[in-house]
Amino acid sequence: MLIDRPARLLLGLNNALVERQSGDQPNPLPVDDLEWNRRLVGSAPELRDEWFRFRTSGGRLPRIEDVLGEHQGNTEVWGAGLLWSRGRPAGPLLDRFPRTVEALRLVPGLRSALWSVLAPGTELPEHTGPDSGVLRYHLGIDCPPHCALRVGDVEVAYRDDVGILFDDTAPHAAWNRSSMERVTLFCEIERPVGQPARVVNRATHALLALDPRYRAAPDRAAAWDRSLNRTAG
After folding, report:
1. One digit per residue, pLDDT tens: the chain, 233 residues?
2. Do 59 and 71 meet the contact criterion of CB atoms below 8 Å apart?
3. 150 — phi, psi (to 5°)?
4. pTM higher than 0.85
5. What is the CATH code of the structural domain delimited by 46-228?
6. Rounded to whole angstroms, how far apart are CA atoms 41 and 53?
7. Domain ranges of the chain
8. How far is CA 219 from CA 57, 79, 114, 213, in A?
9. How far apart are CA 150 and CA 130, in angstroms?
10. Are 79 and 117 spatial neighbours (Cβ–Cβ below 8 Å)?
11. Closest CA relative to residue 90, chosen from 74, 69, 113
12. Residue 167 phi, psi (nearest 5)
């Protein structure tokens, strides 16, 4: 995530407020009792069907660095299919994933979402995210063995129809050590906090969303989709 000095200062102030409000929480966070997670998990077979229809029709995804405009540190290939950006549906794939987009509308505070595909042998080395005001959520769609996420000292295997919610400002890493693709639905969600942190957090992300680098992601995704999927059904 490219961050200039003013944005770093803004995020630093917001992070301090959000972290004081959030207190000491486990990481990954409990997710089974969250209604929106139960709905997404319940929809996972339909989302998987949409994904397989896209893939079997010849659908291809760009690399995540080509969508976001910066490399993410991964080895091998990390594919990304943008579905949601800056709090609303976006990108060239919406008409090909109508059920997925419908399911995402039920996620409160959804900031961004994409198909996340790690090619066989892909590793994302340990790193930390810059933003305490959002949480990351991964829903397993097509997850072979030997694929996992590690957050701090906690390692969690990716599994079909299972969601993982975590604070990515903690050191974390992910990998696909199998011979098949690992597919998840990747979401960035506004962190639920009380007042006044909620207002400040939302204002912070509204300002960050104005950055042209982030606003350009849907256009980059559309350009790559035209190049990659000219003949896909």
Report:
1. 445 677 788 899 999 999 999 988 999 999 999 999 999 999 999 999 999 999 999 999 999 999 999 889 999 999 999 999 999 999 999 999 999 999 999 999 999 999 999 999 999 999 999 999 999 999 999 999 999 999 999 999 999 999 999 999 999 999 999 999 999 999 999 999 999 999 999 999 998 888 887 889 999 999 999 999 985 44
2. no
3. -120, 125
4. yes
5. 2.60.120.330
6. 19
7. 46-228
8. 23, 16, 14, 11
9. 17
10. yes
11. 113
12. -95, 110
In whole angstroms, what is the distance from residue 74 CA to residue 99 CA? Answer: 29
User: Concatenated DSSP letters for 170-193?
Assistant: S-EEEEE-SSS-EEEEEEEEEPP-
Which amino acid type is present at position 171?
P
Q: Tell me which DSSP letter residue 94 carries.
A: G
The DSSP secondary structure of 116-174, one letter per residue, reads EEEPTT-EEEEE--S-TTEEEEEEEEE--SSEEEEETTEEEE--TT-EEEE-TTS-EEE
- Could you identify the residue written with the tokens 């066989």? 120
d(CA 128, CA 117): 20
Q: Which of 78, 82, 81, 84 is nearest to 65 (CA)?
A: 78
